[in-house]
Design a protein that fits this description.
The structure is a homodimer.
Chain A (H helix, E strand, L loop, with lengths): L5 H5 L9 H9 L3 E4 L11 H8 L15 H12 L10 E4 L1 H13 L5 E6 L4 H9 L2 E6 L11 H5 L6 E7 L11 H14 L2 E5 L25 E6 L12 E5 L2 H13 L5 H10 L4 H23 L14 E5 L5 H11 L5 E4 L1 E2 L13 E5 L4 H17 L6 H8 L1
Helix pairs in contact in A: 3-10, 4-10, 5-6, 5-9, 11-13
Chain lengths: ~400, ~400
Amino acid sequence: MPAISTKGRQMPASPIRKLVPYAEAARARGVEVLHLNIGQPDIRTPEVALEAIRHLDRTVIEYSHSAGFESYRRGLAAYYAGHGMALTHEQIIVTNGGSEALLFGMMACFEPGDELIIPEPYYANYNSFALAAGVRVVPVRSTIQEGFALPAISAFEALITPRTKGILICNPGNPTGYLYSRAELETLRAIVLKHDLYLFADEVYREFCYDGATHVSALSLEGLDQHAVLVDSVSKRYSMCGARVGAFITRNAELLATVLKFAQARLSPPTFGQIASEAALRTPQAYFQEVIDEYRQRRDILVDGLNAIPGVTCPKPKGAFYCVAELPIDDADGFCQWLLESFQHEGATVMMAPCSGFYADPASGRRQVRLAYVLEKEKLARAVRCLGHALERYPGRLKAHQVAASAR
Amino acid sequence: MPAISTKGRQMPASPIRKLVPYAEAARARGVEVLHLNIGQPDIRTPEVALEAIRHLDRTVIEYSHSAGFESYRRGLAAYYAGHGMALTHEQIIVTNGGSEALLFGMMACFEPGDELIIPEPYYANYNSFALAAGVRVVPVRSTIQEGFALPAISAFEALITPRTKGILICNPGNPTGYLYSRAELETLRAIVLKHDLYLFADEVYREFCYDGATHVSALSLEGLDQHAVLVDSVSKRYSMCGARVGAFITRNAELLATVLKFAQARLSPPTFGQIASEAALRTPQAYFQEVIDEYRQRRDILVDGLNAIPGVTCPKPKGAFYCVAELPIDDADGFCQWLLESFQHEGATVMMAPCSGFYADPASGRRQVRLAYVLEKEKLARAVRCLGHALERYPGRLKAHQVAASAR
């Protein structure tokens, strides 16, 4: 038979989805699986978006413009204006989710072998898009001890080579929930300008900031019109992950023209999803206030609960709806699989994403897991209790002196 | 400013969409533009698909499985069984249109620099996906004189090198409308097996065969389980281009597992589009009979009309809803632009796709255009008349002896 490509062999399986067969088997045995592994919220999609779909008055479901419906792009420009970003609709290309925006952006900006610096731990699928585009991910380590703050400027400078062409941040961060301050973004701005790099900012969790913190967009930084790329998506904002509608946004005209060619090749983003997304722009502010309040309560239940378990460390995030916890275990991949295969507490078990896939070197995250707080509070409280019992019984549990030794 | 990548610079603009700004300007001047440039049918989407969308009962628009909803994949397997292809739902990965299936397939099967043989003229966007994957397209010429039949086996053999890893066909063909016979497919089967190549078959126009001709799928050929890849889409079948739902299908388990990793990276295909596509599987057979009859009548009006214009040659296609015509002109790119910029007849002009983008060497198609017969008959008849007048007035019109000379 013909061979599989090198890229195909190297493409990582999703760390978020690779345990799915074990979860299916657990369910088949009658065990309830509490899904903390995936950022699939149970929050209702705004009624205004669902109503637009239910009142569909088209009789032919046509392609849209390759950059997306103009009316939707004009609506998006108004949305960004409301968030302090001056943009025209021509600076926005609607994509098949944020995923496609990342892939197109990497292909349009980077040569195979070029280096892209990403603070780690980072969203696992960045590895996949980088591999598809032939880009080399160079991680710059943020640590759980410092709550995953932006690494020092010296740490970036130490990694810059002639092949370095960009920096990619996720803000607020997946998987850490870390929200960059304006000062941290100004630091990035200085590095980007000094070395003439692209700055990709994945800001799909923009709306979800807690404790009075405000989000600062990369597109609001001075002097980065040619450098800054915003990756966006409606998936989390409107709890509409399945719409598959994102956006590639920049003020760099040459880059826009280039990405449009990639967009033309795949014809158009989805029409139904765009109809829902355009309507969702009219979502009342009360919806977000309610949702943000709900997430904040969920965060507190999960993060406070985790930190109350002996040996567990989990910085409290200021944004998004994820957290990274360090557990007193030998190996998170093994632990997450064991939870699904060999454990239950009161008829339920917990599914989490091992952090190995969120680091360039899988060994770095071997004691960490990512947890999404997208389930209702009662389930989160049960998940915490379940996890506490599991850590008492897990054969690979580390003793206190082992935890201390491994942290060194 | 940071540089654009080589890939980004080389990515071709869509030959189908690159004239859009001229069409917009024509419309702004009050000229009706008859769109024969793009395969966007005016046929109604089946009511059963629209009804499923209008009766949406979900309150959270969630991701689906990365390979698509299992219920939809099971439905698709039954659909293929009805077309003589035995498949399980696990051999089907639902994609963002046929486009994504082509991109994933090329990335999973071919190394950068590998060669993919494609009978030309071919669907222009194959160049874009090949460029994105780093694959070198090697064209094997089919000629208008032979009605775009499959080139002789010797023509393929002459092109095969150690880097040849696959053959890609579109059947029925875009842009030619050519429908491969079983004998032609058996020829391809023999080449593929002899040289251990992948055979990619883009069969998105399967339903549209005329004059009693029947479609033979690459997946129905014996002994190609490890070699054959079917690229499919609901776009044309159900006149639902905007749904962005396609499929990557193969019986090669290792290839399926590889493509699933690419699919996991982009999370899921669109939920709304899948709901519409699953419902569309219940489209009554009468719908297809009516649509096929309509397209056949349109084909006859367009192709017979074109052949009645002095100096125009257009083989009558047996499938899809495109034809390629050779015109007595100096340059089709210039002619198509002139039609939009400088011509009108009774308030209307015609938009076509110049064939330069459908050949690996743009010069090869310089006198040819692709026309889609996706508009109602009255418009097609007007388009033919309009084109006849335009050819009389076009400054770059060739005289008979020039046409004969250029055909040599």
